């Protein structure tokens, strides 16, 4: 084999995960990004759209247009894709519980452009299992959700052959604390669960084609050598699964195809400029070796731990990719690691561990049945990671080491982040009401949807018909909720191991509990639709280990529900966690709903510095952001707060 | 809080509950759980008196779907216009003394609905048992709520505890788990008032579990109803279960609950040694059965204390 390629490789597809405020402003952003040399689209939907609520639903409050674009009906999708030729575009949509619906809206938008569905290429994320494990934007129970996934695969493999209907995500597993072995094993187990579900809905001879349409969405952390080994291990394991479990022989169908968004978990709020070099190194993990190179890459922005990135921040992330692909000589060589003792050794280690873990998941009945097991394992791994950072064993530059810093000039007048116009939500509420007024009667389309949902038929035909009829996102999901019921995923916190927590902290909790006459009780709450529960789960586990009675009811609660629970449960303090930017609306809502009950509220999450004074003014006792990584210190402060509020004195 | 102040506060909260004021529930529970306010708790219990509400114990091993079932039952009760309180007892961590509460299927209800009250309680040091304040709380709440549910985890150990606090005990099992059946046959578990098999949507395994339990009850000469339900959409058997619980509640034996409650308090205070002084549990239960039916729980407790210290 020559050490040079006969001709330079074509670069991977370059995307930026983008969308906010409204369909019109997101469309403008997409067009600008494409003009800058971006080669595909990656659509970020807001949380109401992801979880199947219209902008005027109670749970949507504070979330409309925040972490993505609201798409409530085919009209919104047409505006979002206006002027973008869908027959030529490759569009990735981060959409899961409502994937079938958003895909249908995309197909209808293409129809309106005169593009038939078999011309479309792109990806719907559509990996529901990781939503239960990590990301939290599920809508229905596991059984019906897997059926929706299988329906979409069965439909696209016949009608939209260039579409990747499912992008199995190891990405969010790493964000939830997964080790590389867990990431490999849990994502492979998920892929098998999807394939097994589809096998019941397509003829056996179509399964090799189905296998060939399954793609992955992975993560890469800053330990870029072993992260690259992880991708090589996945390549090997996927091919093996294809041959042995699904009898696939076509070499092309056996290829492990993946897109990537590199790690956000390791990005820091402190000295945020350091995130740039972290992102570059992580990009190397997914591009260095040709045999396991990403098909599509999107890089986070340097300021993600601070808030929502601005267009300029996203441009910088795109330029990193362009420098790597077009300026360096990376794409001129065959695989750099073939024959590497180090790489082969690492791959072998990971494969051994992943195969063992896969057996454990299989023993529990496969990925769907093993959700509680996997969730508990992830919470446990994440707890270990935080403990390593707290102890200094794992170094985070600027956070637990080398913390001396000059003031950053990058945090300008806007705080270095994008702030979504708070008027967006009211406009979206009005717009969806106006849409419902003018679009005509959709009750027949919804009845048909309910009928099909309760039957064994493929959901796609009725979904496409509903999309054309002008049904809204909330109506589509509402009809399915009527039939499927709703669901709450396991939190994993009950099973997490209890390490030796800080003795002084436990003594102090015991002292205050004794003085109060009953155990210090805390409610850990996640208001709104934000499903990123990792932080709240870690706080809940640590509080229990410190000796608190902890009430944690999981994600997606309204401020009224949280306030009611806090009062009925008789808690001494409320801890709220929000990462999606809706803290400005939802935190004051919780305090208002407490209706004068004297329970102090502390807040944690991605809270820009500029928002802290307003929260304090609304009555929040303390605000914690990613730079507060020492959980024990947070606990100490919470106990002190409870002691002070109840007049039982500070620590001796 | 001084004793006098606590007594006053307890008496006030007890009176509010006795008058059916459900908004007193959170503060009443705070007081009952306060270990340093025993006087206040006692005042609350005696001011509240014995409520007319139906106290139902729902128990079963983890993962059988108790909370999901409870959600469905709650909606059924609310649709019948009944006010419902739920006391959900969770185990505490032995190591830290802390507890994770509410880490289960959320019992969905409208936060504006004042006729629902849900409270989690840490079981404290007693494995599989009730929190110390649970029984008093259930009795006090039975004044202001039509139904008071005590939800506990376990099979084989905690039914006894629940039986001391509840008018009706329902044990929940899921298909294909043999534990309950074995415990029932071996007498480790007392025969509950109602047996519930969840996950009826599984079909044959649920029907088999129901038949096995019926056969075991038949062999024991017991006639407790066995009901198979599905608490997830589309629900099945929930109304029938609510009916079965209510039927048992109509014939409930409050005298028995009072006597067992007094004995439980006595054992909690004096331990196994105290129980031996009474001649053992069976003798104590027999002796209690001979006492006047009208005696309330504190009086019965006082009588037990006196027997324990015949010369005191």
From TrEMBL, chain B:
It comes from the Bacteria. InterPro entries: AAA+_ATPase, GTPase/Isobutyryl-CoA_mutase, P-loop_NTPase. This is ArgK protein. Gene3D superfamilies: P-loop containing nucleotide triphosphate hydrolases. Pfam families: MeaB (PF03308). Residues 52-219 form the AAA+ ATPase domain. SUPFAM superfamilies: P-loop containing nucleoside triphosphate hydrolases. Keywords: Chaperone, GTP-binding, Hydrolase, Nucleotide-binding.
